[in-house]
């Protein structure tokens, strides 16, 4: 814990003048109705978000310290709640909007996020201007039915709580069984029950999806052995192999001190365009552009040290029709070329539809626009040491004009005729979060498994009601899944959390029985 104490002490020194860390992300949305603003003392420690079934976000409530503030907007049918761990804070707010706020993501400095609402219309991404800042308050408007606009205010809080957090961590883990928790299943729940089981930590996952629709099957690997398929194998497979020490936390994620682009994910249509792109950094932040549609893909580097180096693909002059990602490290020899790491990105999308263009900044220089500038621009400036570690998207196979990025006098061209979703995870990566979307009387439509490095595996299609599963304890990771399947697709899913120790292994069977009876 010594490094945490040093980190806390360093942060105290940085607080000579906290005002300099204030920044404001201007509001997005139609803006009709009555204005609102949150207020409270200390750090934000929890959040509740309400959404109408299948549609808009209607209300938000923040907890400062131990006290919940007033509801911003109104309470409606579906509530999503996230309680932050000590020392955890929100560092990003993203979502989709039109006349109303349609969808919201609140992302923490541990890589976890809360998702609410439904993917529709124009994307937005709010970040603080300073790496030390966190979300301090929200402001916007609502018309009595739903939120019509939203803005975010960023700043710093006293560092005393971080010192207390460092001391508290030293006395943790007295008894591993106390960290067990269960996220009750969501979904219609018809068909036959299932449950995963295995020895040791989860080291890999596969998720199968029917074209354009439901999650059909899941398979977990414990140690070196793959378990049975939960549900059934179908047309599209998504796979993620974890690095040593990595685990799923949200389906939640913990992130390194330095930030790099380590993942690119998104959605595409088989014979047309890239519909959505998500660029994920090693600090858990992401840039989202475009509209959720059709097939999902996930790009990751094969090595934990690698970051995004360049993109290649094709464009037809209107939108991007294919995309590939190249991963590597920045060496001294490589830096001598004047290129360096990626430090910023811009992504353009046409309203409600395709991704039209991408532009990367290497060092201080922006490269040329790949594709074309569209109606909606999303921009992300990386903090020092931050890099992209994942790229996610959706695409269509119409190859017309090819585009290439020229890096270090080397031309790299890749044409992908088949996309395999697979994730490699860094040392000390765990699955800490599971999120997705489901229909209350139908199927599981989308799944997102998030690791403690901020990387995630996404499968399925954004549809209907969102859910977010987290462990109740910061040390816990995903241990097993349970739910039901009707032979065609998954109809319900629940998650069980704990830590891997000799004591925990001895209660695996009892835990599995409990999971089945609870589902």
UniProtKB/TrEMBL annotation:
Signal peptide limits: 1-16
Single Gene Ontology MF annotation: carbohydrate binding
Superkingdom of origin organism: Eukaryota
Coiled coil: none
Residues covered by the Jacalin-type lectin domain: 22-156, 180-329
Pfam name, any one: Jacalin
Keywords (A to Z) from UniProt: Lectin, Membrane, Signal, Transmembrane, Transmembrane helix
InterPro entries: Jacalin-like_lectin_dom, Jacalin-like_lectin_dom_sf, PolyBind_ProtTraffic
Membrane-spanning intervals of the chain: 152-174, 394-419
Name assigned to this protein: Zymogen granule membrane protein 16
Organism: Merluccius polli (Benguela hake)
Gene: Zg16_1
């Amino acid at each position: 814990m010594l490094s945490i104490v040093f980190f806390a002490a360093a942060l105290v020194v940085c607080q000579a003048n906290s005002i300099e860390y204030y920044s404001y992300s201007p509001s997005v949305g139609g803006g009709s109705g009555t204005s609102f603003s949150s207020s409270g003392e200390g750090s934000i420690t929890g959040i509740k978000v309400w959404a109408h079934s299948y549609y808009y976000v209607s209300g938000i409530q923040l907890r400062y310290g131990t006290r919940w503030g007033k509801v911003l907007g109104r309470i409606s049918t579906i509530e999503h709640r996230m309680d932050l761990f000590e020392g955890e804070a929100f560092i990003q707010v993203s979502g989709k909007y039109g006349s109303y706020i349609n969808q919201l993501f609140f992302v923490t400095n541990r890589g976890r996020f809360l998702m609410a609402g439904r993917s529709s219309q124009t994307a937005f991404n709010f970040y603080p201007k300073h790496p030390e800042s966190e979300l301090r308050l929200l402001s916007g408007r609502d018309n009595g039915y739903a939120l019509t606009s939203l803005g975010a205010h960023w700043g710093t809080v006293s560092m005393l709580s971080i010192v207390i957090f460092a001391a508290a961590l030293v006395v943790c883990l007295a008894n591993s069984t106390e960290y067990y928790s269960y996220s009750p299943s969501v979904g219609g729940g018809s068909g036959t029950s299932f449950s995963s089981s295995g020895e040791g930590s989860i080291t890999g996952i596969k998720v199968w999806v029917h074209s354009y629709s439901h999650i059909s099957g899941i398979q977990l690997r414990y140690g070196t052995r793959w378990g049975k398929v939960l549900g059934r194998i179908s047309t599209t497979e998504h796979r993620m192999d974890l690095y040593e020490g990595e685990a799923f936390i949200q389906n939640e994620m913990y992130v390194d001190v330095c930030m790099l682009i380590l993942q690119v994910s998104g959605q595409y249509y088989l014979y047309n365009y890239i519909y959505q792109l998500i660029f994920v950094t090693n600090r858990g932040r992401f840039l989202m552009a475009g509209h959720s549609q059709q097939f999902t893909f996930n790009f990751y580097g094969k090595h934990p040290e690698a970051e995004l180096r360049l993109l290649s693909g094709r464009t037809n002059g209107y939108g991007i029709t294919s995309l590939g990602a190249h991963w590597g490290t920045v060496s001294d020899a490589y830096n001598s070329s004047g290129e360096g790491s990626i430090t910023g990105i811009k992504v353009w999308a046409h309203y409600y539809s395709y991704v039209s263009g991408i532009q990367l900044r290497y060092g201080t220089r922006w490269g040329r626009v790949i594709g074309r500038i569209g109606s909606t621009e999303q921009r992300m400036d990386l903090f020092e040491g931050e890099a992209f570690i994942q790229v996610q998207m959706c695409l269509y196979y119409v190859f017309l004009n090819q585009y290439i990025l020229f890096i270090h006098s080397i031309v790299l061209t890749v044409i992908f005729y088949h996309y395999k979703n697979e994730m490699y995870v860094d040392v000390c990566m765990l699955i800490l979060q599971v999120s997705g979307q489901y229909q209350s009387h139908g199927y599981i439509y989308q799944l997102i498994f998030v690791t403690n490095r901020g990387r995630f595996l996404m499968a399925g299609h954004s549809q209907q009601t969102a859910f977010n599963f987290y462990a109740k304890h910061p040390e816990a990771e995903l241990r097993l899944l349970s739910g039901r399947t009707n032979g065609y697709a998954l109809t319900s899913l629940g998650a069980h959390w704990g830590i891997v120790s000799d004591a925990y292994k001895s209660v695996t069977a009892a835990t599995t029985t409990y999971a089945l009876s609870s589902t």
